[in-house]
């Protein structure tokens, strides 16, 4: 039995507070590149058509909808998140896209997924693993829920290498992004974001964490000059 920690509750409440503006700010702050990142992540999941998918930290369902678009008829997604308000926005988006039947939303922490072993062909988490209070346990749960031979795909921000670009990126993340986010949202998520990203493990260390959780053949590759890293493991 897993009990929600104070950090679990804090994260859920924080994202609930910015749910109405979340998608707008994502497009603005990433200049729309986040859509490409998700397409690349979904391309790493299996099978190539149809299938059962788990979307951890589903939020406003961007990843879930991308899965349904790419996998076609017969695909289904279970989306879990701590924030009811974020998932409410996701449900509305699915309804507008006429995809409501393809996505089931459940409120649950990544550390205690309400699914049987090997329930899914692939599991993914996009920009949410750094918010999991017990990251190791969350990864173990994702692996447990995926069938043998399935995929665990993680898309997460990272700190790009290089003196010039790395310094420019950190300045944007620490100084510019929180101010822009603060203009459109009263929430603290865009002040929290740079702190959580800069504290996240380096790609080789996180890939090793995935191996320890039950993934084999873990690979990682940088996207957009290393702003984001795409991790893929085979269950």
Number of domains: 1
Q: Would you identify the CATH architecture?
A: 3-Layer(aba) Sandwich
Instruction: Give the C-alpha Rg.
Output: 17 Å
Distance between the termini: 24 Å
Supply the helix-strand structural class: alpha/beta
Number of helices: 8
CATH first level: Alpha Beta
Average pLDDT value? 91
Helicity level, as a percent range? 40-55%
Number of strands: 7
Unreliable stretches (pLDDT < 50, length at least 5) are none
CATH fold annotation: Rossmann fold
CATH superfamily: Vaccinia Virus protein VP39
How large is the share of residues in beta strands?
15-25%
What order do the SSEs take from the amino end to the carboxyl end, as H and E?
HHEHEHEEHEHHHEE
Shape: globular
How would you explain this protein's 3D organization?
By secondary structure, the chain is α/β, with parallel strands linked by helices. The chain has one domain: Vaccinia Virus protein VP39 (Rossmann fold). About 50% of the residues lie in helices and about 20% in strands. The chain is built from eight helices and seven strands, in the order ααβαβαββαβαααββ. It has helices spanning about 5-30, 35-45, 60-70, 85-95, 135-145, 165-185, 190-200, 205-215; strands at about 50-55, 75-80, 105, 120-125, 145-155, 215-225, 230-235. It has a seven-stranded mixed beta sheet with strand order 3-2-1-4-5-7-6, sandwiched between helices. β2, α4 (about 85-95) and β3 (about 105) form a beta-alpha-beta unit. It is globular, with a radius of gyration of 17 Å. The two termini are about 25 Å apart. The relative contact order is 0.15. The mean pLDDT is about 90.
């Amino acid at each position: 039995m897993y009990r929600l920690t104070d950090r679990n509750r804090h994260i859920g409440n924080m994202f609930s507070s910015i749910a109405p503006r979340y998608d707008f700010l994502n497009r603005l702050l990433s200049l729309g590149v986040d859509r490409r990142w998700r397409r690349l992540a979904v391309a790493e999941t299996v099978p190539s058509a149809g299938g059962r998918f788990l979307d951890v930290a589903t939020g406003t369902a961007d990843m879930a909808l991308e899965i349904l678009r790419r996998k076609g008829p017969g695909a289904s997604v279970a989306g879990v998140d701590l924030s009811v308000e974020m998932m409410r926005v996701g449900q509305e988006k699915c309804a507008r896209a006429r995809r409501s039947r393809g996505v089931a939303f459940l409120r649950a922490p990544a550390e205690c997924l309400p699914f049987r072993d090997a329930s899914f062909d692939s599991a993914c988490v996009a920009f949410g693993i750094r918010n999991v209070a017990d990251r190791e346990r969350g990864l173990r749960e994702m692996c447990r829920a995926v069938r043998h031979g399935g995929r665990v795909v993680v898309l997460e921000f990272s700190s790009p290498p290089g003196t010039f670009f790395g310094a420019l990126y950190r300045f944007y993340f620490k100084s510019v992004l929180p101010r822009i986010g603060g203009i459109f949202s009263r929430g603290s998520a865009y002040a929290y974001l740079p702190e959580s990203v800069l504290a996240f493990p380096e790609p080789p260390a996180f890939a090793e964490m995935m191996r320890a959780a039950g993934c084999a053949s873990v690979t990682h590759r940088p996207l957009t000059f290393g702003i984001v890293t795409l991790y893929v493991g085979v269950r």
